[in-house]
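Suppose you are handed only these lines of text.
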Amino acid sequence: MSLMEAPLSVVILAGGLGTRMRSKKAKVLHRAGGLTLLEHVVRASLPVAASAEDVVAVVGHQQEQVRASLGGSGIGFVEQPEQKGTGHALLMARDALAGKPGLVMALYGDCPLLRTATLARLAETQRESPAAATLITTLLERPTGYGRIVRGSGSRVAAIVEEKAATAEQKKIGEINSGIYCFRADLLWRHIVELTPNPASGELYLTDLVEILNGHGHRVEAMVVENSTELLGINTRVELADADRVLRTRKARELMLAGVTIEKPETVLVDADVQVGMDTVIEPSAQILGRTVIGENCRIGTGSIIRDSLLEDGVKVEAYTLIGTSTLEREAQVGPFARLRLENHVEAGAHIGNFVELKKTRLGAGAKSMHLAYLGDSSVGAGVNVGAGTITCNYDGRAKHQTRIGRNAFIGSNSTLVAPVEIGEGSYIAAGSVITDEVPEDTLALGRARQSMKPGWPSQRRAKEAQ
Ligand code: UD1
Ligand code: CA
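From them, the structure of the protein bound to calcium ion can be written out as follows.
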């Protein structure tokens, strides 16, 4: 087989803790743009490999969580039991991949801005080149912290010098190592065993492989990328915020170009997997998270936070509304200041107003709960009106109980519905009632003390006080 059609394996190094993050959590598990750093890298590299099995992540720190975070991706994993450097990490993948011919792309799990097109271009460049390896470099005005590229003759790379080992002269080099390499598999696996521990840190540096390959008379070439943004490696939380900003901007742009209006896009947070339909308007400071899907012609009010929910066409979410794991059918309206906590289903055209909380509740088509209510573990029929201050008492201190309200019932203000309880179709609950027993259909239920009156009592009292 010629190298032109050589298969390609991808190895993503993700074993380190990331000391500079100052965190107990492994660096690659930190999130930007709604996904972990590693998820971004895996997504960018999957299309350049023939199949998911050709992508391998080297895991170490918190490897259970790291593996779990990529559970559905189908990629393979190898363990790096001790974190002895980037060269050591790649060495861990040798047994799994040494038998495979073709090319090996190696990259780091802390580069979430990488684009598939750039990786594909690297693979293409290496395929067409006689070199043993090609690596992506870029020119930075402030290269501090990155490995510097020491050029040889022509387009060759002679060595990579890490910041700590660089001389004052070398520190002035603006061309840096992005940490993305494409090797000929046979030469990589033959020579990687020649890496020796760095005298200062005791680690095996993948970057030393450049000199080793040169020493054997092989060429290493650089592919210079002009837009350095996508090569950003995340080492600190400041860089994490930088990456998040770039990813949010990309997502907002993608949505705007697809017909979504975003007011002040620099203030909204939309996660990577969110889908939004045409002519929907997203007001400033809204957050749309997780796997949320929003239809066409919706409005998402300022300050609202929507997570893992489905909003059909024409849904209006007024300002400062929180929605989690819920479905809102077409033309439903919620907020301002409403909370649809979890697993709610709001049918078409239903209205939910301010200071209303729903949990595991189904609200029927056209039903209304406009002010100050708590509806938990309940089903509310179509056309029901829930008065202000209505509370479902769904918890007795031990277990949760259901409230069922039939179609077109009218629940007077400040009603207390002690679950389990059922209210029949078309029935009326008088304002201020405490309802503990089933109300059959077409019935008025009053569950409160009758009003009594004492005419003249106030003036008698005032006269007494004047004595
Ligand atoms: C590395 C490069 C540097 C380059 C920069 C680009 C080396 C020695 N240096 O430096 O030339 O400019 O990336 O961003 O390679 N990892 C492991 N196991 C380990 C150590 C690290 O899996 O034992 C993983 C980490 O999880 C991380 C990646 O390798 O995802 C890079 O490690 P990091 O410590 O961030 O390398 P840099 O110092 O940034
Ligand atoms: Ca790094």
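What can we learn from it? Residues 3-231 form a domain with the Spore Coat Polysaccharide Biosynthesis Protein SpsA; Chain A fold (CATH 3.90.550.10). The chain has a mean pLDDT of 97.
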